[in-house]
């Protein structure tokens, strides 16, 4: 069955591609979905029954928002489907638990559960409308009662607290099992947002260790060496420089270190925070 796809304009950040005329069913003519590497914005003109397909990296999902607009209102003109065709179910807002925990003021966003999406315009929007599509990390890991996830920093990354006491290596593995990594604080803002969400009543593991070489602290999740001038937030007097060969992992928060970083024995048991970037 041939689908008609009249004039469309794709704005891929700097590059722009236009297609004119009538496109037939992609499977017949080798028409490929638009690959979302990081972000794509599509603007009009949109006609009746325009169909767009998007896809991203296999283990990532797609996030839809409207530039300077409201996605609920936009749904009057378009339907966004969670999958490779217009018969796939409609995309949804994330579950209430994730939304509750997420940073306030993030753009209203609909997420797929797979790496593909199909957008269909049912009628031409009255005003100029721009649809923003971003690659995002899956944030639906809070399926276990001892896990809590949210869009803590922005609408495309995901952070989860694992309320199970494990040593640092096992906590690293729990994150990896969920396609995530043990948290790395690359900036004060990131630490502050995590702190605000989960407080620091209970300490949790981060990916910072000096197990490879005493005194050389590395964010294992990103394999970056902490050098002079990088953001740090050590508890006064820490890390201990003497007899410190057993205190190789950074524990954040809790009653001992408050909102600071402490160096402790990696075999100690604590909760963990995982993160996933798009
Ligand atoms: C996202 O997570 C959900 C729940 O674990 C899973 O069913 C789905 O397949 C995941 N999607 C991708 C693209 O990994
Ligand atoms: C850490 O410091 C190094 C050397 O000064 C610099 O190249 C790097 O960009 C810094 N990393 C961060 C995350 O600030
Ligand atoms: C670290 O913990 C392990 C396991 O509990 C223990 O064997 C070791 O002695 C500890 N090291 C120090 C310095 O406390």
UniProtKB/TrEMBL annotation:
Per UniProt, residues of the C-type lectin domain are 154-275
Keywords (alphabetical) are: Signal
Q: Does the keyword Disulfide bond apply?
A: no
The signal peptide annotation in the UniProt record is 1-21
Q: Name one Pfam family in it.
A: Lectin_C
Q: Does the keyword Transport apply?
A: no
Cited InterPro entries: C-type_lectin-like (IPR001304), C-type_lectin-like/link_sf (IPR016186), CTDL_fold (IPR016187)
- Name used for this protein in its record: C-type lectin domain-containing protein
Origin organism of this chain? Daphnia sinensis
């Amino acid at each position: 069955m041939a689908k008609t796809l009249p004039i469309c304009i794709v704005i891929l950040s700097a590059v722009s591609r236009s297609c004119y005329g009538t496109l037939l069913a992609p499977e017949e003519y080798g028409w490929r979905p638009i690959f979302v590497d990081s972000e794509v914005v599509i603007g009009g003109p949109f006609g009746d029954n325009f169909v767009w397909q998007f896809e991203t990296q296999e283990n990532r999902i797609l996030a839809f928002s409207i530039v300077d607009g409201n996605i609920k209102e936009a749904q009057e003109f378009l339907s966004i489907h969670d999958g490779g065709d217009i018969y796939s179910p409609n995309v949804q807002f994330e579950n209430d638990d994730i939304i509750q925990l997420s940073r306030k003021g993030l753009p209203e966003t609909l997420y797929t559960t797979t790496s593909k999406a199909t957008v269909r315009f049912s009628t031409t929007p009255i005003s100029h409308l721009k649809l923003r599509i971003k690659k995002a990390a899956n944030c639906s890991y809070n399926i276990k009662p001892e896990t809590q996830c949210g869009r803590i920093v922005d609408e495309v990354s995901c952070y989860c607290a694992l309320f199970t006491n494990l040593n640092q290596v096992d906590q690293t593995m729990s994150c990896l099992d969920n396609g995530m990594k043990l948290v790395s604080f690359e900036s004060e803002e990131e630490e502050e947002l995590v702190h605000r969400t989960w407080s620091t009543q209970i300490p949790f593991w981060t990916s910072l260790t000096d197990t490879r070489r005493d005194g050389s602290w590395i964010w294992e999740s990103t394999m970056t060496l902490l050098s002079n001038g990088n953001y740090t937030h050590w508890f006064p007097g820490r890390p201990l420089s003497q007899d410190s060969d057993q205190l190789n992992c950074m524990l954040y928060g809790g009653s001992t270190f408050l909102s600071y970083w402490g160096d402790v024995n990696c075999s100690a048991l604590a909760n963990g925070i995982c993160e996933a970037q798009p």
